[in-house]
Amino acid sequence: MATEKVQEGKNQIPQLFKDKMGALTEREKDYFSVMWAKSGVLYITAKPGVAKSAIARSIATKMGFRYMDLRLSMVDETDVGLYPNVSEVDADGKKVKCLDFVVPRWAIEANKQPTIIHFEELNRASQQVRNAALQLLLERQIGIDFKFNDNVLMMSSGNLGDEDGADVEEFDSALNNRLVHFPHVLSVQEWIDGFAKENVHRLIVSYITAHPEQLYKTSENTKAYATPRSWTFMSDFIISNFGKDASPR
Fold first, then answer.
1. What are the C-alpha distances in Å from 39 to residues 139, 140, 153, 154, 177?
2. What does the alpha-carbon distance between residue 120 and residue 104 come to, in Å, rounded to a whole number?
3. What percent of the chain has pLDDT over 90?
């Protein structure tokens, strides 16, 4: 019973972070709470451009965490902590060569402050990268010596597959049972209140408020269609070229 109480106290969200949770939307609170529990892996899925990265970054910003994202479809397993290293250890008075893994710099940096690490495109990664990422997500350590601090939180995300035209790998039941699945949907009002008001040019916010059907709109042109991501790109273009308070025609 005493051990259970110690563990319970260890896992509870500190008051410092509880005070900041008031700034989170209800969806962000759900995601943060799952990440904090560190039991199972938060896995959100949605169509491309529906602010999976944006909501993770928003949680980090509001909670005072550093945000790191690893886009797994663009890296190999050595980037995720499986770069081999041979070292000598003492075994019964004898030096024995052992194989371990080199800790990547991003992992060292993550342990320096409260950090959210987002493993993106988990179901689009190669099998080697996916296995390396899942081991890290589940074990919260690299090799046997490097462990992530309690204030380093992790999450993963993926695309839908046939429904959104993305080439993905289907997970088996054993793997799915280790993931905490959340279908990530985003209403217009959630996007405006939780992200756009603070990060998107006011003209775009006004336009989407008046024309909510334009927030996510597919077209026959698969190279370009409207999503929360593309509206953010346009906002960045306007602000960078004309200024935050500008009203370009």
1. 10, 11, 11, 11, 12
2. 17
3. 41
Assess whether pLDDT exceeds 90 at residue 81: no
**Vertex 134 angle, CA 133 and 139, to 5°:** 105
Beta pairing class for 66-71 and 94-102 = unpaired
What is the rounded distance in angstroms from the CA atom of residue 15 to the CA atom of residue 32?
A: 14
pLDDT at 105 over 60: yes
Task: Return the higher-pLDDT residue of 168 and 89.
Answer: 89
The candidate with the shortest Cα–Cα distance to 33, out of 52, 18, 50, 15, is 18
Residue 68's nearest CA partner among 196, 180, 182, 156 is 156
pLDDT for res 167 = 64
DSSP single-letter state for residue 104: P
State the DSSP H helix or E strand holding residue 22, giving kind and residue range, or none if neither: none
Q: Is 24 left (phi over 0), alpha (psi -120 to 50) or beta?
A: beta
Confidence of residue 219 (pLDDT cuts 50, 70, 90): low
CA 214 to chain centre: 26
Interhelix angle 52-63/26-37, nearest 10 degrees: 80
